[in-house]
Write a structure and sequence with these properties.
Helix content is about 75%, strand content about 0%. It has about 100 residues and is mostly helical. The longest helix has about 35 residues.
């Protein structure tokens, strides 16, 4: 009886594992072309917003860096306040939002 349960469980694990692979997207799928409206909205509204967030985050980071040095979390502070907004502002092609 115990052997039968193990065989059933192992069979289910294999079936579920292979079905997940079959439903996965290909890794090299080509991105869709962005429309002109999406590129315009990205260039006029979204990118300036993230640029402003980067500038403000850098200012806050500089002001709070002595305290984050004491707390030994300056890396996390730099990532959240400077790096992430900068990546959002400059790291993606226009129209990708």
């Amino acid at each position: 009886m115990r052997r039968k349960i193990i065989v059933v469980i192992m069979s289910l694990v294999m079936i579920i594992g292979f079905s997940a692979q079959a439903m996965a997207r290909p890794c090299c799928e080509k991105a869709e072309e962005a429309s002109a409206a999406a590129i315009l909205a990205d260039a006029v509204f979204i990118r300036p917003f993230w640029l402003g967030c980067t500038v403000l985050g850098t200012g806050v980071f500089v002001l709070t860096s002595p305290f984050t040095l004491i707390g030994k979390n300056i890396g996390h502070s730099a990532k959240v306040l400077v790096a992430e907004p900068a990546i959002n502002a400059f790291g993606y092609p226009l129209g990708s939002y």
